[in-house]
UniProtKB/TrEMBL annotation:
Functional summary from the UniProt entry: Removes the pyruvyl group from chorismate, with concomitant aromatization of the ring, to provide 4-hydroxybenzoate (4HB) for the ubiquinone pathway.
Organism: Aquincola tertiaricarbonis
Annotated binding of substrate, by residue: R61, L99, E164
Family the UniProt entry places it in: Belongs to the UbiC family.
The protein, known as: Probable chorismate pyruvate-lyase
Compartments (UniProt record): Cytoplasm
Entries under PANTHER family matching the protein: CHORISMATE PYRUVATE-LYASE (PTHR38683)
Length: 185
């Protein structure tokens, strides 16, 4: 990763608020492509971030966010299966709508601080990003490192972990710095 791309990644990793709204302000039309939504195994760190025992059944939703025709973000959200009949039940019917609609329009939802992450080739996170990118773009994740961020949202005592990985093409753009004030909803 070039120094410029690493600097761009840091801007996106720390940008507060709705990533979808920032992407809209940055590049216009944002489209959500759902890759999968199912009960699936957790990746390293997810159980601990959610305060769950390893092996707890969780719903996993993976999407790619596109700006125009370009895929720019691979995202993975994880919620305990028990939360799907409670505070996060709307997640099941979300389809191709952005997750932001559930997270930022509800004053009962709180968020932990954003945590920047860097996942090298060979890590389970890089492997998942690579699989998603092959599905969407027909090619592997185009970098040796996945620059990402994660945080946990809480609603009525139940967690929802959100992980967002930024495509190298997005980070290479000289205009890729996230806008400071996203368009209001």
């Amino acid at each position: 990763m070039t120094p410029t791309a690493r600097q761009q990644a840091r801007h996106w990793q720390r940008a507060p608020g709705s990533l979808t709204q920032r992407l809209f302000a940055w590049g216009g039309e944002v489209r959500v492509q759902r890759l999968r939504q199912q009960v699936a195994p957790l990746l390293p760190g997810e159980a601990a971030d959610l305060g769950l025992a390893p092996g707890t059944r969780c719903l996993v939703r993976e999407v790619v966010l596109h700006v125009g025709d370009a895929p720019v973000v691979w995202a993975r959200s994880v919620a305990p299966h028990a939360a799907l009949s409670g505070p996060w039940k709307a997640l099941v019917g979300l389809g191709t709508r952005p997750l932001a609609a559930l997270l930022f329009d509800d004053p009962a939802v709180s968020r932990t601080p954003l945590r920047p992450q860097w996942h090298p080739r060979g890590s389970r996170w890089h492997q998942r990003a690579d699989e998603a990118w092959r599905t969407v773009a027909g090619q592997p994740w185009p970098a040796s490192v996945v620059a990402a961020r994660s945080s946990v949202f809480w609603r009525r005592g139940m967690p929802l972990r959100v992980f967002e990985a930024f495509s190298p093409a997005m980070l290479a753009s000289p205009t890729a710095t996230p806008p400071t004030s996203p368009r209001p909803r």
